[in-house]
């Protein structure tokens, strides 16, 4: 039960099992936490969707990444350039389409995993903060699903996309203060979403906010600095369960 807001080679991979459940678009932003999609969040999204008998259909924008980060040292590799769609195809096991092909009319819901790619490749939030822009294709699909009254889910930093495009939406990015613990290093993002008119709810890592008016579901995921991967997996699972509840699938 949910109140209005509740805390809670390519050909080798082209064949998938036939599903009778909802078709859920999953939008990726690359491959890797610092310059693309957070891989563990993305995997959790896909796992929980198929466990819920939904069919994930994966998309990514066909654009160059903002930059490429050497994940061993956490520093940009200025000698390298990569394409968001090509890198996202690694997570999709090759079965992926360009975001320009995504239509709300062909899907029942949509999910945006987090990772810095959401703030670097899908928007300019990482650089411009409260003055950021969401790339046109991402803004288009968010508006299409929202206008069609089809549920949307966002985790980690990705709820900033919903807030920037939709304005007055209820979301969570986790906690709005770190209080010196170091566990919420990105809590400053809360002030930005509030400046756009969004209503932010503080939650723990596995908390979920369901905005039933806008059909938007969010969870903090790796906005929380934890070595416990199961905490992220469990929180994303609750988010997907809430999404499927909105669809009447569970």
Spans of at least 5 consecutive residues with low confidence: 9-18
The computed structural class is alpha/beta
Biggest sheet, spatial arrangement of strands: 5-2-1-6-7-11-10
| Record field, number of beta strands | 11
Count the helices. How many? 8
State the separation between the terminal residues, measured CA to CA: 11 Å
Q: How would you sum up the global shape?
A: globular
What is the string of helix and strand elements?
EHEEEHEEHHHEHEHEEEH
Mean pLDDT metric? 93
Q: How large is the radius of gyration?
A: 17 Å
Question: Into which percent range does the helicity of residues fall?
Answer: 25-40%
Task: Describe this structure as you would to a colleague.
Mean pLDDT is 93; it is low at 9-18. Strands 5-2-1-6-7-11-10 form a seven-stranded mixed beta sheet, with helices on both faces. It has a two-stranded antiparallel ribbon with strand order 3-4. The protein is α/β, with parallel strands linked by helices. Helix 1 (39-51) crosses helix 8 (229-247). It has helices spanning 39-51, 84-91, 117-120, 125-128, 136-147, 159-166, 189-195, 229-247; strands spanning 23-27, 55-60, 69-70, 75-76, 97-98, 109-112, 152-155, 170-174, 199-202, 209-211, 216-219. It is globular, with a radius of gyration of 17 Å.
Descriptive key words:
about 250 residues; about 30% helix; alpha/beta; globular; 7-stranded mixed beta sheet; two-stranded antiparallel sheet; 8 helices
């Amino acid at each position: 039960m949910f109140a209005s807001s509740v805390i809670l080679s390519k050909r080798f991979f082209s064949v998938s099992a036939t599903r009778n459940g909802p078709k859920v678009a999953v939008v990726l932003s690359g491959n890797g936490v610092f310059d693309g999609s957070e891989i563990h969040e993305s995997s959790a999204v896909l796992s929980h969707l198929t466990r819920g008998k939904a069919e994930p259909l994966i998309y990514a924008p066909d654009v160059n990444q903002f930059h490429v980060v050497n994940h061993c040292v956490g520093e940009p590799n200025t000698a390298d350039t990569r394409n968001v769609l090509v890198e996202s195809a690694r997570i999709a096991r090759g079965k992926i389409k360009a975001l320009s092909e995504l239509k709300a009319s062909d899907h029942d819901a949509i999910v945006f995993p987090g990772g810095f790619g959401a703030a670097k490749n899908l928007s300019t939030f990482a650089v411009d903060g409260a003055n950021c822009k969401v790339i046109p294709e991402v803004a288009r699909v968010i508006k299409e699903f929202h206008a069609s009254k089809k549920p949307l889910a966002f985790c980690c930093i990705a709820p900033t996309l919903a807030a920037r495009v939709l304005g007055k939406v209820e979301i969570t990015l986790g906690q709005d203060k770190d209080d010196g613990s170091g566990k919420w290093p990105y809590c400053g993002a809360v002030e930005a979403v509030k400046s756009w008119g969004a209503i932010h709810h503080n939650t723990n890592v596995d908390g979920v906010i369901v905005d039933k008016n806008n059909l938007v579901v969010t969870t903090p995921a790796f906005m929380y600095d934890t070595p416990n991967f199961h905490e992220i997996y469990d929180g994303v699972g609750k988010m997907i369960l809430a999404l499927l509840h909105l669809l009447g699938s569970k």
